[in-house]
Amino acid sequence: MKETVLDVLMYLFENYQEGEFSDAEYHDTLREELLAAGFPDEEVGSAFAWLDGLAEQRQLPLVFGPYRSTRIYTREETAKIATDCRGFIIYLEQLGIISLEMRELIIDRLMALTEEIDLERVKWVCLLVLMNQPDAEEAFGHLEEMVYYHGEFKH
Asked: Which domain of life is it from (predicted)?
């Protein structure tokens, strides 16, 4: 089985504290552990680049139109993120689990993946983005409960 960037990220999520893998000072130690666990070096490097990209995007100011405006996806986004995946993101917005800013981070991080995007991957990216947001513990808890304990989403 070919391991993907998201497989590496999911492994980090499930086996380490957030601070351990989002802090660059731990990357060398984690890289060695991930390689020992059988992940390819290229995918490990790409996973850390993905996390660095998330940290960089978090620092950028985002400007939005009027509240409750409709997000129009670009051609590239609609080609990569399927309708059911976009619907799931809208569903999370409507529930108040993610903000407009988080939605944009999620879309950005989905677009940064090289592998095919399906609903399961979207759920994981949402969890990873929420986990890395300050003051998003409650939203993270809601989404984690939905993903782990409620199975399928109704949207």
From this structure: Bacteria
- Asked if residue 123 and residue 82 are part of one domain, the reply reads yes
Which residues span the domain enclosing 50?
A: 1-60
User: pLDDT digits over 117-134, tens only?
Assistant: 999 999 989 988 888 777
Please, what's the b/e burial string for 56-95 (b: 16 or more CB within 10 A of its CB; e: otherwise)? ebeeeeeeeeeeeeeeeeeeebeebbeeebbebbeebbee
Q: What pTM value is reported for the model? A: 0.76
Q: What's the total number of domains in the chain?
A: 2
Distances (CA, A) of 65 to 70, 78, 92, 93, 103: 9, 21, 19, 16, 14
Structure-token pair, residue 29: 């130690």
Q: Note whether 155 and 96 are same-domain residues.
A: yes
User: CB under 8 Å to 131, separation ≥6 — which residues?
Assistant: 13, 18, 140
Q: State which of 37, 60, 83 marks the end of a domain.
A: 60
